[in-house]
Amino acid sequence: MQFTAKDIAFMLNGTVEGDPLVEANHLAKIEEGGNGSLSFLANPKYEQYLYTTNASVVIVNNSLQLTSPVKATLIRVENAYSSFTLLLEQYNTIKLNKSGVEEPHFIHKSAKIGATPYIGAFSYIGQDVTMGDNCKIYPGCYIADNVKLGNNVTLFPGVKVYFDCIIGDNVVIHSGAVIGSDGFGFAPNPDGTYTKVAQIGNVVIEDDVEIGANTTIDRATMGSTYVRKGVKIDNLVQIAHNVDIGQNTVIAAQAGIAGSTKLGENVMLGGQVGVVGHITIARGTQVQAQSGVSRKITEEGKRWAGSPAISYTADMRSNVVVSRLPELEKRVNELEKIIKELKDRDVH
Amino acid sequence: MQFTAKDIAFMLNGTVEGDPLVEANHLAKIEEGGNGSLSFLANPKYEQYLYTTNASVVIVNNSLQLTSPVKATLIRVENAYSSFTLLLEQYNTIKLNKSGVEEPHFIHKSAKIGATPYIGAFSYIGQDVTMGDNCKIYPGCYIADNVKLGNNVTLFPGVKVYFDCIIGDNVVIHSGAVIGSDGFGFAPNPDGTYTKVAQIGNVVIEDDVEIGANTTIDRATMGSTYVRKGVKIDNLVQIAHNVDIGQNTVIAAQAGIAGSTKLGENVMLGGQVGVVGHITIARGTQVQAQSGVSRKITEEGKRWAGSPAISYTADMRSNVVVSRLPELEKRVNELEKIIKELKDRDVH
Amino acid sequence: MQFTAKDIAFMLNGTVEGDPLVEANHLAKIEEGGNGSLSFLANPKYEQYLYTTNASVVIVNNSLQLTSPVKATLIRVENAYSSFTLLLEQYNTIKLNKSGVEEPHFIHKSAKIGATPYIGAFSYIGQDVTMGDNCKIYPGCYIADNVKLGNNVTLFPGVKVYFDCIIGDNVVIHSGAVIGSDGFGFAPNPDGTYTKVAQIGNVVIEDDVEIGANTTIDRATMGSTYVRKGVKIDNLVQIAHNVDIGQNTVIAAQAGIAGSTKLGENVMLGGQVGVVGHITIARGTQVQAQSGVSRKITEEGKRWAGSPAISYTADMRSNVVVSRLPELEKRVNELEKIIKELKDRDVH
């Protein structure tokens, strides 16, 4: 990728200030930009870097007034931040614009594959799989029998989807994620051993969901584990069987949700949060990192923290006192001593 | 899969009530059952759904007395729950009944493979591997040199087993799990760098073990990391080098056990539990989710909670007071003020 | 591998005591050593086992004075521990000494591969990849377009490296680890949905780094996520976008570091630790297992514990009082009662 300042200005409908033929071949932050890099300045806080940067081209707001000479070629636009975001997306689209079917692969003859797919080498597509248009299946993915994929689905390398699972449109799943593994269901026997409870449900992932690397989502015992429209899940997250995650909920890395729990819409779970099974969490609930939710949450839009989780403000206040606990105990010791003296004196 | 009510009644030794020719092609919960679904009613609590369900066929107890008309065809059996469980297993057996050897694969000529295997495409079976009968190696698995697998082992897609590891009969390992990766052993040097300690042991997984998706079990530095008979491990669990997990122990998702720790039989660890290294945990110990076990547990069959873990009941009691800590501190402030007044008055 | 006591003594520059022709074919701890095993005795605490072991050959210090007869053949050396360590490494080198290029594989014609590689079956090497000498790419690895690998890099089975990432010399990455997946960046919209922020940076892993199984390291939004020289990372760890991990830092299993946080050199994070985003952690900081670091740490070389983390000693002291909290509350109740009595009496 190599563009002149003039080309970029044309794409962004901007105007060039400086050498229009200078070339940029990668994107960089303004404070890190070197020769050949294209950067932007939106936040006035960073204006100082404009006068020292080694970036070749910098996108700036039309309204910016220079206070010193600038080495880089400037491209002036209405909104430097949104113009740059546009370029970011453009850049990524080019990088991820794989197409074609690589060899070797395993595609069952009964599988139905939509238009313009990318199917990477060593990918496995099982019996009766259906796949919409513009799907990108990176190398080493596994799509089991009877799985359904919508349009514009991207599975990064090594994603595994067990049989019968359903994935909507525009879903992105990162490397190593496992969709549809057995729920953790075992019935105890009198002799201390366990008998497996067959897990015959599936996982349903609705449209516009993104799932992080090495995350695991178990299939339902019966029925479906649901990840609703617009949900965003980070890396190494565990979603147990029969969980139902409401629309536009966001779950940070290493959080875990136990079986049959139902999260409302627009919930936010911080990193390493745990949620017990068989409860419901009201829409808009926010849970701080490392907290443990042990009871249902019925009030919408509140913030929780701690393990077990209590209201965020109560937890903050308690934490402060916890750090002073040894001192508090000493004060109680002292009080008891004084009281004893007072009482003894009283007696005499 | 498509069966008539009559077929199902025959399999379960039950009697048909309603149209014996109605067909079912999938299993569903009674409250979710639609056209073509087969369901069951065991718990009287759910009886209401029997009169409203759209399921085509419902298995019920012989003893059930109807209080309203029912649209579905009923199959009456001695025990509806156990009959349905039987069907679940049957269903799963059919779904998972893969066989044959798919192309391409890599099987070292020295590998010994038992009768009726399934070996999925892109699977790798190394030098001197031995594998019992009826093993199912799903696509993209990696079995390193000198690994031994028993009979009826199932490795779901993308399981990796490092060299020299030993896996018993009837073991099930889910996608992305890693068995036998190097233990985390590094010796510090005076200059702040670390030198790796070679990890030359292996992992031994005994019979009837199930291991969840993306779980990691490290090989021993020397000797073996043991997962004993009947152990059940959930997803994303970390088992460090030289750990020994006792028979029929159950470990929930995202728990972690540090090096050389020995768990007794029938231990239960909740989700996200951490256990420090080099300790022993008595048989029958139960640890609540998110707890951290920092010392050995010698008394059998007790329940623990908190980080660091204390007895479950003590932790419950402490948690209650923690949430009232700011108030407790205020009460101590108040007491000190009163005492000061009393003492001052005393002096005068 | 099969050596006589005489052979081993020759390798270690030691002297044989007993049958020089006895053979050993594997390594074992002295307390577990059986027929054919080679063991060592360095710690006097274990001397008792020397007289009962079934190991065929035992390496001991020159200085050791026997107090009973010994069945095994002894090899006397200056330092039994370091001699044994030498053998461990030798053993591992032989075990891991794979070479050659296995079929089938996918290597883009533009990829540049150094001398004496091992490339396992089902490995994928993308466009413009460059790879140094003596790299070992185990089966089923994925190396995306434009990735650069140094010399002596080992990627165990199923490692995935996304495009543009850079990996230094002598790096070891264990099975299932994902390098360069998208950072978790989504901008909220007024209607509750999220728009993905393109993640166009990369991951840079410097020399002498080891990364555990199923660990995930996200690419930077822009610029790079850095794992500096000599860092050791355990299994199932999450490193978010734009994190920078200082030289020789050690991170135990299941820890997680949120976006843009910068760890100094020689930091140690215990298992399941969480660190919030956008902070710096001073060099030499040590954080206890399961702790949560919620604020920047500026003082070097201190130890922290708890969630939120406070100084280690303060946390230890607080934990003790937490377990006595119900009792403390009772004592305050009692004090209030007495005070009330005293005041009442005072009034009359």
From TrEMBL, chains A, B, C:
Key words, A-Z: Acyltransferase, Lipid A biosynthesis, Lipid biosynthesis, Lipid metabolism, Repeat, Transferase
Catalytic activity: a UDP-3-O-[(3R)-3-hydroxyacyl]-alpha-D-glucosamine + a (3R)-hydroxyacyl-[ACP] = a UDP-2-N,3-O-bis[(3R)-3-hydroxyacyl]-alpha-D-glucosamine + holo-[ACP] + H(+)
Top-level division of the source organism's lineage: Bacteria
Single Gene Ontology MF annotation: UDP-3-O-[(3R)-3-hydroxyacyl]-glucosamine N-acyltransferase activity
Residue stretches making up the UDP-3-O-[3-hydroxymyristoyl] glucosamine N-acyltransferase non-repeat region domain: 25-89
Pfam families noted in UniProt: Hexapep (PF00132), LpxD (PF04613)
PROSITE patterns assigned: HEXAPEP_TRANSFERASES
Transferase keyword on record: yes
Active site as annotated: 241 (proton acceptor)
EC number: 2.3.1.191
Alphabetized SUPFAM superfamilies for the sequence: Trimeric LpxA-like enzymes
Gene3D superfamilies named in the record: Hexapeptide repeat proteins, MurE/MurF, N-terminal domain
Protein's UniProt keywords contain Acyltransferase: yes
Function: Catalyzes the N-acylation of UDP-3-O-acylglucosamine using 3-hydroxyacyl-ACP as the acyl donor. Is involved in the biosynthesis of lipid A, a phosphorylated glycolipid that anchors the lipopolysaccharide to the outer membrane of the cell.
HAMAP family in the cross-refs: LpxD
Family of the protein in this entry: Belongs to the transferase hexapeptide repeat family. LpxD subfamily.
Name of the protein this chain belongs to: UDP-3-O-acylglucosamine N-acyltransferase
